[in-house]
Design goal:
By secondary structure, the protein is of the alpha+beta class. It is 34% helix and 21% strand. Helix 1 (26-41) packs across helix 3.
Length: 319
């Protein structure tokens, strides 16, 4: 999995764009939705196709956002879409039509496969996830059950018979800490800017921000200092960080803001396009979109501004 993905060559930007999935042309979007309809029909399900989802006769709804992003990001282009769509639909229907893992797994098996996930607010129904813990503006920690073919995000109703919520969270975090580091790359430039990126196929790679201090020590061999770190979680398979030790934070902040925005766009499992300041487990947002929504801006104030001033005073640089 590369850090910066090369987009497959398809219809050019001059082609009319789809209103829901702007990375598709209107022609590509019609092809994609048609293939989704065909994949469900192969299983005897006639679905009504909407811009961002399909629904069947039983009023079950299937979102298309992640699947569309998977197709968009596949370097093979539209020729690979039927296979990707068919595999996705088969997996979804197996999960829905089979017995619930909550009914077939023992309580200890459930706890052994429990993990915390950081998700965007748009990814959960707040009425079903009242227990979700806010970790940053627009980001929440929930509990998920890891299954061979899917990840089940656990609602209030699903968690209720499993016991004490804090004990479940503690077990989930312990399971997260036990995961291997699948991949690590350093992003740097000739001027000395650098930050680290964890990447992997695990759905919980970005969620390791919940255990950042241990992750940094594990990856770099050094503990996090008192100032914490810059972090970014563009999508579920990436976590970027830069331990804050000196004025190297300034170029890293700009580079990570661009990295997060690029990684967030058009990806399955998108989490956040922003950079955050991690300090003692608390996340403070440092980047945002311009007022016109077209570009990025750095938002610095309060304690973080004081930190920057102290670091500059301690490291004034050459005259």
């Amino acid at each position: 999995m590369g850090l910066f993905r090369r987009k497959p060559k398809r219809d050019g930007d001059e082609a009319p764009r789809d209103a829901e999935f702007g990375y598709f042309s209107e022609r590509e979007a019609a092809l994609f939705r048609g293939q989704v309809r065909e994949a469900f029909a192969e299983h005897g399900l006639e679905v009504t196709v909407y811009a961002d989802m399909v629904s069947d006769d039983s009023d079950r709804h299937f979102g298309l956002g992640n699947l569309a992003a998977v197709c968009h990001n596949d370097d093979r282009g539209p020729r690979a879409w039927p296979e990707l769509i068919r595999s996705h639909v088969e997996r979804v229907l197996r999960t829905l039509d089979g017995p619930s893992a909550l009914d077939t797994l023992s309580p200890e098996q459930i706890r052994a496969q429990l993990y915390p996930r950081v998700v965007g607010a748009g990814g959960i129904d707040p009425t079903a996830f009242c227990y979700a813990r806010s970790v940053a503006p627009g980001l929440y920690e929930i509990l998920a059950l890891d299954l061979p073919e899917s990840v089940m995000m656990l609602t209030d109703e699903a968690l209720e018979p499993l016991g004490d919520l804090q004990q479940l969270r503690d077990r989930a975090l312990a399971n997260l800490r036990g995961l291997p580091v699948e991949g690590h790359e350093t992003v740097r430039d000739s001027d000395g800017m650098r930050f680290e990126v964890l990447l992997g196929d695990s759905f919980y790679t970005a969620s390791r921000v919940l255990d950042l201090a241990a992750v940094v020590r594990r990856v770099t061999g050094e503990p996090l200092g008192e100032h914490g770190a810059l972090v970014a979680m563009p999508f579920r398979h990436q976590l970027a960080f830069h331990p804050i030790r000196d004025t190297g934070i300034i170029p890293a902040l700009g580079a990570m803001a661009s990295f997060a925005a690029a990684g967030y766009a058009d990806t399955p499992g998108a989490i956040s396009p922003y950079v955050f300041w991690w300090r003692d487990g608390t996340l403070t947002q440092l980047s945002d979109h311009d007022e016109d929504g077209e570009g990025l801006r750095i938002v610095v104030g309060g304690d973080f501004e004081d930190l920057l001033e102290r670091l500059v005073a301690e490291n004034p640089g050459p005259d």
